Amino acid sequence: MPSKWNMFVKKIYEEGKAKDSDYEFKQALKDASKRKSEMGNTASASGVKKSRKSAKRGRSRSASMNLALAGGKRTRKRHRRR
User: Fold this and answer.
1) Is 53 a domain residue?
2) C-alpha distances out from residue 67 to 29, 32, 61, Å
3) Residue 40 in contact with residue 48, Cβ under 8 Å?
4) Between 12 and 69, where is the model more confident?
5) pLDDT by residue (tens digit) across 20-74?
6) What is the rounded CA–CA span in Å between residue 33 and residue 26?
7) Domain that holds residue 36
């Protein structure tokens, strides 16, 4: 199902295309951005941001660093090429 934003841009594009046969979708995106207050109460119009889950799971960086400093985590030494 298309998002409200996509449906709104499509509506703007269809209106513009009806008036001018050379109207392009990229122009519809620009016009829709200027007219997003007409779209209604959505997350992008009201300024509310959606939260994203962290891609990294497991230990935090500070926990990993504490283990490394305490000797709980071994690191490989790099050998220099000759």
Assistant:
1) no
2) 50, 51, 10
3) no
4) 12
5) 999 999 999 999 999 999 987 544 444 445 556 655 566 566 665 666 666 655 6
6) 11
7) 1-41
